[in-house]
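ingest -> fold -> write
write: protein_1
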Amino acid sequence: MTRRDRIIRTMRGEPVDRPPVNFYEINGLTENPADTDPFNVFNHPSWKPLIELARDKTDRIVLGKIPFPDGPWLPTYADMKWEHRTKGKSLFITGTQEAGGHKFTIRQRRDMDINTVWTLEHFLKDAGDLEKWLELPWEDFGRKPDVSGFLELEKKVGDTGVVMVDMADPLCGAAELFDMGDFTMVAFEERELFHKALERFARVIQERTEAVAAALPGRLWRIPGPEYATPPYLPPALFGEFVVRYDKPMIAAIHRSGGWARIHSHGRIRDVLPHIISAGADGIDPVEPPPQGDVELSYVREKYGRDLVLFGNIEITDIENLDEDGFRRKVAAALEEGTSGTGRGFVLQPSACPLGREISPRTMRNYGIMAEMAAGFAK
């Protein structure tokens, strides 16, 4: 059975020789150790063995971004003026936009040794900003997907895995306009106004989902964003209102093309799992155990495993910190719980990937244990 077959059969709910294993964002293809950019953490020599392990020994699921070159990615930032300034080992990015008599500002920071971007100042600060933003034009955006890069990635991956479409949902777009505290305040107290923001994003995202699904039928998709409506940020009752209402049409379009939709939601998912099922999702990641989440993998498998392929549930903190015996127990438990009873399928996968420039020997060893134990597991 090829690595690609193993993933496809898992998504279909068909028998496989063993559960697939992948390292989430680390795939041995899109990392570029040869890039000498000082902000590229992958050029540190310690990353090379991990990149090669992902390439050679994992069932690769490569995230594929789809550009829309016929217009702006999102109208929100179409007329932004950007300033990039390097200070020490940090890059500071400032975007400003003056429209409708109002000045919008976003400030971000990226450090050379950390593979992430921090938002220091968010685009919107309160409900008043949101009202002004909703008055701006919102029709100038790209509608025609360029899937050539996606197809090229698929050729490179070949039988070693699949390329997965990555499309954030309307809640992700609207929530990330705000600081987390401001988002929860506006979403909870100004629901009608916040729905206008969700509807605005939904017009763009639904049109794009349908276009991509038609151009790339039968693919696996990842939909990030639903975690913004999970506890403790918002009560579970709002998950149906803010997620299901807008994600269900996305998932329906994906299904019409023969594809599968995987919901990405960190944190406490126990009370929103029925909503995720009602949206029509085919899979969920990363199914985090306490204390990061609030549900054991065995519970999700028992209650919802017939509907959902479960991706998880190895925490990145355990990969980086546990000794060998402790980590082997974690992996053994995940494999056992993820395949217990009857269910659609299970994929052994971390909750995230390391962000630092240097991969420690312990981290490298534990990734090796994941690959080794999955390869030797049959049930």
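write: protein_2
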Amino acid sequence: MTISLDSTNKWIKILPFHYTILTAIQSGTIVTVNEAIDEDTPSSGLLMLGTYSATHNGNEDLSGGYDWATNPENFKFHGYLGGPDTVYLNANCPTFAAVLAHLNARLALAAHDHSQQYEFVEDLTNPNHVLLRGKSGYECTIYSFILDVGSPNALNTLGFAYPEVELGFCDMYYYSSWSGSVFTLKAGTSLSKTYTVGYSCDASYESINVQDIYNLTMEWVDEQEAMDDDVPMQAIGKKPIATGVYTDIIFELMNGWKIKFFNGIYSIIILGTLITDDGSARTVPVDWGGIEFVFQTGTSSTIVTQGSGVTEQDKQDIANLIEAQTGIPIKAKVNPLPSDPASETTATIIRKIQTNKWKIVGNQLIIFDDDGITPYKTFNLSGESTKPYSERIPT
């Protein structure tokens, strides 16, 4: 996984793995990239092949340069790495070449150095006019950008429309595996066209584990640059309660921190129990595009290891914990009476809760018995009101 911590906005940013295309031929089922694929790249996932860079044309002739030393101006820029960042212009630029050099230098000095992905150049169809674009190798929706007004506003001087969102474009495919420098598309799919050598090829996740996000975030916390920042996350749980038995891990976003995914239109599954310390949203909306989030949380409050050694007292302790944390009234069924062979064991109850069909009806979660029809357990729900899914059906 690759993440970036934005302490200004308190965002834990999930980023794709960036490569560039070597070969991607129409009707083919493989994509070869110019780089060795990073070992942390998901074994299967989403592949984004760039087709067009985000661009924005200025309509002012700057052949005579501009004196920003006498008239300092600025504008807001929000790109792939973050923002909105203020780009300050403050030099005397007597020529058009000096204008471009100053713009690119100041773009690199913004709160996020955007100069790796974006550049100011001359508009070849309209000489002495400024063109802002994504660099070669960053032709993709996720490398789009936003321009917004500064104070005093430099966008008027440059002839840029504002506020303005400029989009790049890419095609998306799912891949099933990779090896060396080659991605293999999922069975039954093929490339719709031939893609340009050197254009972007970005790989990302179909699903992502909260444990991995937490691990990388804690590595950042330990770095010197993060010493003055609020801690973004904590892990609660995995406490031993019996021989080989532990509570689930709950991951909590703290101090206003949120998860932010990269821009685009796609869906992603988030595996693990993720909450916030104030009950607010767990993720930040993307700047352009739209994401369907599927949160798959644990349905049991315990994790039980395989093997023997659990005593009757252990079972009672487990039942007490489950009832206290989830409200599931199972204590009466922990030790079935000999005269009641239909009574259920703790393992049976946990199995049904973990694997059986469930459905959200109104503000209640209903877990069904093995027949998929008879209600087994019912819980009242609270919190976020909008969910993309309301039913779980075993397959």
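write: annotation protein_2
Residues 364 and 380 are 4 Å apart (CA to CA).
Helices lie at 96-108, 154-158, 210-221, 312-326, 346-355.
pipeline exit 0
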